[in-house]
Amino acid sequence: MPAPSSPRRLHLNAFLMNAGHHDAAWRHPRTQPERVTDVRYFQHLAQTAERGKLDSIFFADGLALWGKVKHNALGGFEPLTLLSALATVTERIGLIATVSTTFNEPFHTARKFASLDHLSGGRAGWNIVTSGTVDEARNFGQDEHLEHGLRYDRAREFVEVAVKLWDSWEDDAVLLDRVRGVYADTGKVRPIDHRGEHFAVQGPLNVRRSPQGHPLLVQAGSSEDGKEFAAQYAEAVFTAQQTLADGQGFYKDVKNRLARYGRAGDDLKILPGICPVIGSTEAEARALEQELTDLQVPEYGLAQLSGMLGTDLSGLPLDGPLPALPEERDINGNKSRFTLVAELARRDGLTLRELIARLGGGRGHRVFAGTPEQIADQLEEWFTQGAADGFNVMPPHLPGGLEDFVDHVVPILQDRGLFRTEYTGGTLREHYGQPRPAGRLAPSVTAAEGQPA
Amino acid sequence: MPAPSSPRRLHLNAFLMNAGHHDAAWRHPRTQPERVTDVRYFQHLAQTAERGKLDSIFFADGLALWGKVKHNALGGFEPLTLLSALATVTERIGLIATVSTTFNEPFHTARKFASLDHLSGGRAGWNIVTSGTVDEARNFGQDEHLEHGLRYDRAREFVEVAVKLWDSWEDDAVLLDRVRGVYADTGKVRPIDHRGEHFAVQGPLNVRRSPQGHPLLVQAGSSEDGKEFAAQYAEAVFTAQQTLADGQGFYKDVKNRLARYGRAGDDLKILPGICPVIGSTEAEARALEQELTDLQVPEYGLAQLSGMLGTDLSGLPLDGPLPALPEERDINGNKSRFTLVAELARRDGLTLRELIARLGGGRGHRVFAGTPEQIADQLEEWFTQGAADGFNVMPPHLPGGLEDFVDHVVPILQDRGLFRTEYTGGTLREHYGQPRPAGRLAPSVTAAEGQPA
Fold it and tell me: Which of A71, A74, A206 sits opposite B65 (nearest CB)?
């Protein structure tokens, strides 16, 4: 951790997605959609982000074929297997995988993250999400998805179980005493004997405590439930905020919630998304943005928008306004994204076509087109004006958009003293200035050996 | 596939396990138990196996902390994350992960194997197992584990669902038509709409069809249920057989079962386990075997044996005989291992101490100590006498035991024309002479787009 006198530095995460975040990126000549199932493509992206000294790379995830395969490039790597493959070709950058708490088991999830943390020498992060679509539920034997509040109840217990499992081995449990034939001190490996509302898990985990103790805990929902969950558990938050004022409001709101969980403001880093459309001149950046907009398939944009708004918009005139929308309380999917999109359309009086264009780059995340200097100015403003501890960087096209950011924006941030010029830590927790959690072994009741097998 | 006139060649799989298969290996000076949570250690093992042109490497798995952590080195990597990390440092060798059908979901499992298959360029294999211990059940909310027959019922349906998911994209579904903005032909991506006794899964998978179509399907249980399952689904079988006669009996039994599923003998390769204790002279090999036996901790051996036999043996005199045992039909864990061990003790009239020594190297798999020439003779005999299509090679100590096998046994097998001198195929299926399955897309009923998200 930095000394108290060291300057506050921002944190940068590269959010990687197929051919890029713009929904038409794969049609643009600067992208390589034929490579989205080639691990070497993602290796290049990870190594580029590491060259820029970014804190981490990150993959989103969903448990159903999103309704986009007709008009958008889908790589489809599962994040944990993909990040394990990237761990071996990188050395310092953090590796954040999205895993849902809705259709997984805490034992599997805790174990896979412990495994990734060992594999990567302490670089694993878990973006904790809930699954909120009917299509996901139907891949797991459910006809309807869980109600929003219940999903978060389950998520809280899921994380509690995972933490107990990661802590079921003390750091010094392995003795490796070849002479006496004692590998581990079983007094330092204990069952967790968890019995809760959603899970009953005996433990201990079958992996020793990993370099970071726990992976970095990340969260990405901005609803009331999501913000409260973040304040309780998350160490970094990805969020979509369109304006500085919105960003400041969210930042203050979430930071203010920390105290009730005995946490300080710095214990959680807030990273709004930014989709930077970079040009060597402002005109060039705007032209690139327009090129991407021109490549959009309206049918696709309308389907995406229907999903975000929980409202079937098909057949409506593209140059007309949004129809009347439900209330947020009636949305059981991504509540915060619903509200953001509805507010954006209302505030700026957008037609459907205009809204589709505005959402094309970042699906609700902020899009900013400009020169590297202008982009650095924006990041600095949000960072110094109480809206961000760093950014979730979402290049509109890949690999070029990430290369441009690393080669042209990062050096400006470094020159301004806002960003590291070399990694100072070896683990993801160190990059984000988060301490390694001390183990909290359950009180000894029974021996850990369990039944021999 | 080889032309009909090409000679029959054996298949070799390296079964990798921590410091080696002998339960005392980690105490031996030739092993490196301090490295069992270091991915570079496993990278070296994988590269060594690839240097020997072996068909594949393989990791076993269990979903609870086996009762061995006090006296045996436990790495604890989760196999799919570990193999993904090994995929990027190898080029040709197959990568076989054990995943249980008892406490997993077919959607997750199908997806992770498709992901590994893409990552590795077609080198993924799935060792399909059921989980049969109470300690595993208790990590997944169950107080008791599923009855043996029911576990296999679930396993069959699990595999059927996984196959449907892998086939839910036709090979040519991705069009990548940048000009028209059409990424995939959604007429070639379909829901599977599976509704069975254990699973309801809508599909399609959110990963396009992988290089091999399906991962190689491997199975490792030798009970009646296990043999029938293998005959129906498996393309390779790992099995523990102590004598040539037992091996021949098993081989004939399983091959004879294939016809009722419309399969030919060559559609399934049988690989008995062999734990080769290698010395430059026979005396040196026997001395190494004795050294390992002398390092055994009897308490550990007794606990392992109690687990295999479903009978608490603690406190019994080590130099006395086995007590009366239950019948196989009353065993709900690994039935075939129970029978093998009980038969071994009876046939050779072993005391508990002798039985523990005999099981130390391979947990019931055959152990053979000798020179490279003698080991090659044994492999050739089983291969030519109708007991094996290849071998599951289980080095007693690692990395040395694998290095010795690759450097000294493999060249003899190559000289005899029994084993490849170069890889001829690029995928795991090609190594095992198994065809790439044609897609079997479900009839079109509904569009694959599902709900937009």
Answer: A206
Of A66-70, B153-157, B317-321, the range with the lowest mean pLDDT is: A66-70
Question: Does residue A29 have a pLDDT over 90?
Answer: yes
A 54-113: CB under 8 A from B: 62-74, 76-78, 80-82, 84-85, 87-89, 103-105, 107-108, 111-112
Q: Which residues of B123-147 are buried (b: 16+ CB within 10 A; e: fewer)?
A: bbbbbbbbbbbbbbbbbbbeeebbe
Check: CB of residue A13 under 8 Å from CB of residue A238: yes
Chain A residues 385-424 with CB within 8 Å of chain B: none
Residue B356: the pLDDT is: 93
- pLDDT surpassing 90 at residue A40: yes
- Cβ distance B285 to B371 under 8 Å? yes
**Residue A238: closest CA among A86, A105, A77, A57:** A57
Task: For residue B205, list chain A residues with Cβ-Cβ distance below 8 A.
Answer: 65
Selected residues 315-374 of chain B with any CB under 8 Å from a CB in chain A:
333
Gap between the Cα atoms of A170 and A193, Å rounded = 16
For domain B11-275+367-431, the CATH architecture is Alpha-Beta Barrel (3.20)
Query: Which pLDDT band holds residue A439 (cuts at 50, 70, 90)?
Result: confident
Taking 90 as the threshold, does the pLDDT of residue B399 lie above it?
A: yes
Contact yes or no for A453 and B307 at CB 8 A: yes
What ranges do the domains of chain A cover?
11-273+387-431
Residue type, A173: A
Q: Does A306 touch chain B (CB under 8 A)?
A: yes
Query: Which ipTM was obtained for this model?
Result: 0.94
A11-273+387-431 domain in CATH 2.40.110.20?
no
